[in-house]
Design brief:
Blueprint: H1 2-11, H2 13-42, H3 47-91, H4 102-116, H5 123-148, H6 152-173, H7 180-197, H8 199-207, H9 211-233, H10 237-260, H11 265-277, H12 280-283, H13 290-310, E1 325-332, E2 342-349, E3 354-358, H14 365-372, E4 380-385, E5 388-389, H15 395-401, E6 402-405, H16 416-420, H17 427-436, H18 460-476, E7 481-485, H19 493-506, E8 511-515, H20 519-522, E9 527-532, E10 535-540, H21 542-548, H22 551-565
Parallel strand pairs: 3-8, 3-9, 6-7, 7-8
Antiparallel strand pairs: 1-2, 1-4, 4-5, 9-10
Helix pairs in contact: 1-2, 1-3, 2-3, 2-5, 2-11, 3-4, 3-5, 3-13, 4-7, 4-13, 5-6, 5-11, 6-10, 7-8, 7-9, 10-11, 17-18
Bound molecules: adenosine-5'-triphosphate.
The site of adenosine-5'-triphosphate has 12 residues, from helix 14.
Length: 566
């Protein structure tokens, strides 16, 4: 609860203060109402008590909707703050291991539930429910205190009896989502939800007839969450029986004493209401909206720390001085993987040369690219730039020195010009980059997404040309190392060879690393390296490797034969 209160305070101090004041004010009103009713009955002159009663009644009517408004606003602020924190936690770490960790993506699903509302109401809504339940619990305590002013034991007895019920119900209302089963169901529900609503999935869902499957998966996992909640929150019968007995005795005793007490009718009316109102102690504060909200706040806190830890990379202060790359006895395993992807890899890439990397699927080509971009660090060995370990370089400067077209490059839903230079560049440079890659598909200001007014979409190959233009624009801005991971896989054969030849012309002087399965492109590189079993199996120019008659030649001949046959 402390974490939650702290999160409210940080979300919006003014609203949080108003929210708590309103909780307390509203909690006091039922006791005040009981007192005023008693006074009205007892008083000879009814004017004062009537005004008092009317004021309390009016406050009850005004404060409740006001509290509702404040709750919704505060909930929206808290929700935005949590979203900001999650986005910062995800994008902040310099590495990407935290985004690929199964444990952390599970945690992210728990944290995001406050906003998706798959297994509970979204925060803006649940804040009102939380407010109501807190008011109720505190109002019950206020009535018990009022009752204690008549007979201390009556307040204590009824207060304790209803508190016991509170614990029973609380136990039953509490549902820990922090279990592998719940996380799994939440992730599957979120995943299938995205499949249903995101356009890229829309094609396959329809073509492969997966609509029913998607709905079934979503419903199944949602139902699973409902069942798990039901199992966790079922009332235990024996506990219920005991509590009912305690309540019957306590209430019987208090009301019997009240009935037989020789006090005035007004006093009796006040304390009878207080005795009834104490029951709110049992039911307030139990609202099922509170635990999920607390868990979302806690999960966001935990993610902040754990993502920073898992995605951390050591960062030096040296400024990169050159673009020659060297892998020295590099070994690399993904976290929790039992087999290394790279194992004793040695490779020199002289500055200003181009190197193509080939190998079967899963040989570790993209992994090599990730190490050059320093998205991961080697498990052992070093990657060096001009003889300097990348770990000792200033990371921002290093990243400014490298540009890449990744296999799964991003298709930004932004204007064409921002797709070429996301952080800005002169119009002249943007146009030059687009011209060099034959990517002038739209007006510079046209958004590359059909989801926007006047927006357009591109074909796979056209998108690749735009991604190549982005890399060229980065070279213009100072990047000296260019990494291309299957950059032309979606271009037609003629376009591919032309595009790569032109790209190399425009990046003359850069160190270029190309990953490709298309040998027409590969052969244009100064040198080619065949990756096998985590090591460099062959290294040389196209002619040298063909003459060596090894793995490269086998792969090249296979592809050439297929084209000749076609
Ligand atoms: N984030 C990851 N976590 C765990 N294992 C991974 C991860 N990414 C890749 N791998 C594994 O590492 C190995 C090498 O993958 P990588 O993507 O580097 O291969 P590749 O040579 O680029 O393959 P392809 O030609 O299919 O693109 C594969 O066995 C893959 O399953």
């Amino acid at each position: 609860m402390g974490d939650f209160a702290g999160a409210l305070w940080r979300a919006h101090r003014g609203l949080a203060t108003a929210w708590w004041i309103l909780v307390l004010a509203q909690a006091m009103l039922p006791a005040a109402f009981a007192y005023e009713v008693g006074s009205l009955i007892a008083a000879a002159d009814k004017t004062g008590p009537l005004i008092g009663l009317g004021t309390v009644f009016l406050l009850m009517q005004i404060l409740a909707p006001l509290h509702g408004q404040v709750s919704t606003n505060l909930g929206a602020h808290l929700s935005s703050r949590l979203q900001d924190r999650l986005i910062t936690a995800a994008t902040g770490p310099p590495g990407i291991a935290h985004l690929e960790s199964a444990a952390l993506t599970g945690e992210l699903a728990v944290a995001r539930d406050f906003d998706l509302g798959i297994s509970g109401p979204p925060l803006a809504l649940s804040m009102g429910l939380i407010a109501g339940s807190l008011v109720e619990a505190l109002a019950g305590a206020g009535q018990a205190i009022l009752l204690a002013t008549w007979h201390w034991w009556a307040g204590a007895l009824l207060g304790t009896a209803w508190l016991a019920t509170h614990w029973l119900l609380r136990d039953a209302a509490r549902w820990s989502r922090d279990t592998p089963e719940v996380r799994y169901a939440q992730r599957r529900a979120e995943y299938t939800y995205r499949l249903a609503v995101d356009p890229p999935a829309g094609k396959e869902i329809r073509l492969f007839g997966l609509s029913d499957w998607t709905v079934r998966q979503f419903v199944h996992n949602r139902q699973k969450l409902v069942d798990l909640r039901w199992q966790a929150t079922k009332l235990r019968q024996r506990g219920l029986g005991v509590t009912l007995a305690v309540l019957t005795v306590a209430n019987g005793l208090v009301f019997w004493t009240l009935a037989t007490d020789a006090t005035a009718l007004g006093v009796k009316a006040t304390f009878a209401q207080a005795a009834i109102g104490t029951a709110a102690l049992a039911f307030g504060g139990l609202n099922w909206a509170l635990p999920p909200a607390i868990e979302a706040v806690k999960a966001a806190d935990r993610l902040d720390r754990s993502m920073a830890e898992v995605g951390a990379l050591p960062c030096g202060s040296r400024i990169p001085s050159g673009t020659a790359l060297r892998f020295r006895h590099v070994r690399f395993s993904y976290p929790n993987a039992d087999k290394p992807v790279l194992d004793g890899l040695d490779l020199d890439i002289p500055a200003g040369t181009s190197l193509a990397v080939v190998g079967v699927n899963g040989a570790g080509k993209t992994t090599l690219v990730k190490l050059i971009c320093r998205l991961y660090d080697p498990t052992a060995g070093t990657v060096e730039a001009d003889g300097v370990d990348l770990k000792t370089l200033d990371l921002t400067s290093w990243r400014g020195n490298v540009t890449a077209v990744f296999q799964d490059f991003i298709r930004y839903q932004l204007p064409l010009k921002d797709n070429v230079a996301p952080t800005g560049a002169s119009e002249e440079d943007i146009r030059a980059a687009l011209a060099a890659t034959d990517a002038e598909f739209a007006d510079l200001d046209t958004v590359l997404s059909k989801g926007y007014d006047g927006g357009t979409d591109l074909s796979g190959g056209q998108w690749q040309r735009v991604a190549l233009a982005r890399a060229l624009a980065a070279v213009k801005q100072g990047a000296g190392i260019v990494v291309l991971d299957e950059p032309t896989a979606q271009l037609d054969i003629k376009g591919e060879t032309e595009a790569f030849t032109r790209f190399l012309q425009h990046t003359k002087g850069c160190t270029t690393i190309l990953v490709s399965h298309r040998f027409g492109t590969v052969r244009q590189a100064d040198r080619i390296c065949v990756l096998d079993n985590g090591k460099v199996a062959e290294l040389g120019s196209h002619d040298e490797l063909m003459a060596a008659n090894g793995k490269y030649r086998t792969m090249f001949d296979l592809q050439a034969a297929r084209f000749q046959h076609d």
